[in-house]
């Protein structure tokens, strides 16, 4: 499965040489904690209000991102049963092709615990219709175990922020919630302060909107219907995601 995803994304540009000298001063100016990781990249820790977040730039942890990966994450204390993914269409199509090749043509019925959760959820949970996300439907897909929560999350500023992104269609982007944690992953070959600020704005908007939905729509946590392709019991290892 993972090799199939890697093959779909081969040919991506090689990461640029380290050119992130301006990142540490930017982080210091914002009172963020900056730490270089020798030979790999760096880690930045900051806060949105009282909520900590972490930004990491370094080698990819996902087979669908070639070269360097930007990761942002924050523990939001959301309900454990809430599982949400927003991803770009090119990545969605590549993942669905890999699933079909491996588990339909290969006559395999279980997704192993090495498969990224975003791929498992892609076949587990229903997607929002284009009518539910008119500004995003051409470039993104969105799915969740709790569709009502997802609709509320995409009602305003987060949709505007995602719609305003100026990235090539083939650049993988995943924004997801699982086990109470919000995470953003994307390919960033060369890290600089301006690029990081742009992604941090999107991520902090997602944090604010998640807190808003948790406050205003706490009754929206009602599980969506599971699809027929695979049942949750056939997808082991969800509790061990990194």
Placed side by side, the strands forming the largest sheet appear as: 1-2-3-4-8-7-5-6
By DSSP (H or I, 4+ residues per run), the number of helices equals: 7
- Main beta sheet, described? 8 strands, antiparallel
Give the mean pLDDT: 83
**Please, how many domains?**
1
What value does the Rg take, in angstroms? 18 Å
Strand content: 15-25%
Q: Which stretches are poorly predicted, pLDDT < 50 over at least 5 residues? A: 7-18, 223-242
User: Tell me, what's the shape?
Assistant: globular
How helix-rich are the residues, as a percent range? 25-40%
Query: How many β strands by DSSP?
Result: 8
Instruction: State the order of secondary-structure elements, H for helix, E for strand.
Output: HHEEEEEHHEHHEEH
Alpha-beta classification? alpha+beta
Distance from N terminus to C terminus (CA atoms, Å) equals 18 Å
Walkthrough of the structure:
- This protein has one domain.
- Helix content is 31%, strand content 22%.
- The chain is built from seven helices and eight strands.
- Strands 1-2-3-4-8-7-5-6 form an eight-stranded antiparallel beta sheet, sandwiched between helices.
- The model is unreliable at 7-18 and 223-242 (pLDDT under 50).
Descriptors:
242 residues; alpha+beta; 8-stranded antiparallel sheet; 31% helix; disordered C terminus
Gist?
By secondary structure, the chain is an alpha+beta fold.
Secondary-structure map:
Blueprint: H1 2-8, H2 23-29, E1 33-37, E2 41-48, E3 51-59, E4 68-75, E5 84-88, H3 89-103, H4 117-124, E6 140-144, H5 147-153, H6 157-163, E7 173-178, E8 181-187, H7 193-216
Antiparallel strand pairs: 1-2, 2-3, 3-4, 4-8, 5-6, 5-7, 7-8
């Amino acid at each position: 499965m993972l090799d199939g995803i890697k093959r779909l994304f081969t040919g991506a540009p090689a990461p640029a040489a380290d050119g992130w000298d301006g990142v540490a001063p930017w982080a210091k100016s914002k009172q963020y904690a900056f730490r270089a990781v020798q030979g790999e990249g760096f880690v930045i820790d900051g806060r949105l209000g009282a909520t900590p977040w972490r930004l990491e730039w370094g080698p990819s942890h996902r087979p669908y991102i070639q070269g360097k990966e930007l990761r942002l994450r924050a523990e939001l204390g959301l309900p454990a049963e809430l599982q949400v993914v927003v991803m770009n269409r090119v990545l969605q199509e590549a993942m669905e092709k890999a699933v079909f090749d491996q588990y339909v043509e290969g006559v395999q019925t279980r997704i192993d615990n090495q498969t990224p959760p975003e791929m498992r959820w892609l076949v587990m949970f229903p997607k929002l219709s284009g009518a539910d996300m008119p500004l995003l439907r051409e470039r993104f897909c969105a799915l969740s175990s709790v569709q009502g929560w997802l609709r509320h999350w995409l009602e305003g500023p987060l949709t505007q922020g995602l719609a305003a992104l100026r990235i090539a269609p083939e650049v993988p982007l995943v924004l997801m919630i699982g086990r109470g944690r919000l995470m953003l992953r994307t390919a960033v070959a060369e890290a600089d302060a301006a690029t990081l600020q742009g992604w941090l704005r999107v991520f902090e908007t997602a944090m604010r909107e998640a807190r808003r939905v948790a406050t205003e729509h706490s009754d929206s946590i009602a599980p969506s219907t599971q699809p027929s392709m695979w049942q949750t019991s056939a997808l082991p290892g969800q509790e061990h995601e990194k």
